[in-house]
Amino acid sequence: MTTSTRAAGAAFEFSYITCRNISAPEDDAAGRKVYSGHAPASSVLSLEDDENVREYLVGTYGNQKHAPTLVHQAIRKTLEDQPDQFSILNGGMVIVTRAVEVDDKRKILVLQRPSIINGSQTQGELDRYFTKYRSSPDFFEPSIKFELIVTTDDGLIAEISIARNFQNDVRPISIAGRRGQLDELEVAVQKDIPSAKLRKSETDIVVDGEYLDTEKLIQVMFALMPGAVLKSLDEDGDASNKVFTYSQKTRCLKLFQTLVDASGEDSEFSDVYQYFLDIAGKAWKLYGRWKSHPGFSGTGIPSFERENGQVAEVPDGIIFPILSAFSAFVDRSGKKWEINIPDVFDENELIEAAAQAYMEIASRNPQTMGKSKACYSTLLRLTGLYARLGRAN
Questions:
Q1: Cα separation of 81 and 73, whole Å?
Q2: pTM of the full predicted structure?
């Protein structure tokens, strides 16, 4: 059995069976190459997949990961029942590398910084197959189809990775992370929460505080966004319509992605994007504080999870109308966006109003409250009054 090994530096020796240059004229004109062929399955076991927008979803993090999907099960069944047909039943693997040297005599491709960009799930199942059956006397090593793309264009690599994975329903968070659209936001959060790491891939698990829930953070910031700013994004500036911030996390993320892409070309969008960078950390702290605000204790709302009689976690359906109400306190101070809560503001009054809306408008259902325009507008009227009092003083 042939195996692939790391060569000196970042090089990787990739054993192959067949390999052809299939570069199109436009590839040659752009200075890139495309190869295709077959390789022993063991050749792909040690390849990195750091350029991929998703990783193998089974096995890592133990029970935190998903159970085998239909894709995993199909690959597994082929390997166990018909390994000699694997090369024609499996779609193969797409690999990207910054440079390649072809050694026809040894049938070796020497790759510089290679990465799988489509096929991580295949690699994961092959690794499982080799681990389980390699020691068997009748072990059969299948071949695998590969496509090798040689380019030094990091932006193109990201786009290829995204495009080649769409058939596997890559989640928007992975695409945003791979495009670098969350990098500045992470730095912004770390100004207030130095240890924070944003979740940038569907395989980043939000557990034990290792990753901050990026999609939830963006939802929170849209909830806090002043109505006038929201209106500038061609959204409905009426704060009572902020129900989408609670119930449509993908819409919030995609709207944020649009802002990132447009911020360098449009000054108005740049200002709105700056809003996110200025208040990111403060917004997340505000969300965290209200999720376990002690003022909710004794309000008679039974939907709260409690620890030792204390409020442990308030449902988001109640929190988001409250956060939207805080948009009355968000304003630009000079060139920087800030959350300026007036000294006269009484949090207990807001809690009482939220509890009343929960019981009388939402019929004691947190999800109904999170989707009720009336609940949002009721709480905003209260904070709007405090905001006007604060400015008057």
A1: 12
A2: 0.64
